[in-house]
């Protein structure tokens, strides 16, 4: 079997910046986009931005790439893979990523939202205005407000095909 040099690409989560260390024998590149406060931009905007970078990377890596995506970065990488017609990603690894959505306040968010606000976040998030402005709203999944989630959330239900499945088709 011929040895192949497969490239690892890493992408960070919400309110994080570019980070990374290289393992001496593995090529690792960190995608340096949407850092810190830029990470709250809507997820579709981030998907399209990261998608452009990943497409260029894949063209330069004919043996394929692995995506290692952390936290919100997992949602973005998953979104990129869902919209790319062709890719050479061998492995997609999402670490601590809210792939099914988030309900509750994470450690990162505790300084921004009191835990008592969990029950009312859907008021903030489930409308067109906030869906176009804040990434958290694109993956907030309140189990008590599923009709509003499916009607107003313009990101995660599309990835999960949830609205299609729940309609009984």
Automatic annotation (TrEMBL):
Enzyme Commission designation: 3.1.2.2
- Tell me which InterPro entries the record gives: AB_hydrolase_fold (IPR029058)
Instruction: Return the PANTHER family for the record.
Output: PALMITOYL-PROTEIN THIOESTERASE/DOLICHYLDIPHOSPHATASE 1 (PTHR11247), ZGC:66024 (PTHR11247:SF71)
Q: Catalyzes what?
A: S-hexadecanoyl-N-acetylcysteamine + H2O = N-acetylcysteamine + hexadecanoate + H(+)
What family does the entry list? Belongs to the palmitoyl-protein thioesterase family.
Q: Which GO terms describe its molecular function?
A: thiolester hydrolase activity
> How is this protein named in the record?
palmitoyl-CoA hydrolase
């Amino acid at each position: 079997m011929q040895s192949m040099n497969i490239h690892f690409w890493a992408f960070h989560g919400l309110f994080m910046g570019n980070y990374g260390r290289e393992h001496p024998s593995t090529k690792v590149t960190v995608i340096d986009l949407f850092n810190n406060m830029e990470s709250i931009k809507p997820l579709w905007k981030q998907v399209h931005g990261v998608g452009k970078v990943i497409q260029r990377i894949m063209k330069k890596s004919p043996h394929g790439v692995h995506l290692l995506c952390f936290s919100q970065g997992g949602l973005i990488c998953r979104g990129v893979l869902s919209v790319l017609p062709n890719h050479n990603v061998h492995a997609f690894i999402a670490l601590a990523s809210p792939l099914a959505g988030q309900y509750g306040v994470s450690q990162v968010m505790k300084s921004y939202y009191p835990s008592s606000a969990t029950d009312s976040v859907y008021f903030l998030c489930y409308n067109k205005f906030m869906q176009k402005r804040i990434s958290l709203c694109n993956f907030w999944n309140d189990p008590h407000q599923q009709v509003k989630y499916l009607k107003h959330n313009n990101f995660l239900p599309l990835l999960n095909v949830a609205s299609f499945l729940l309609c009984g088709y």
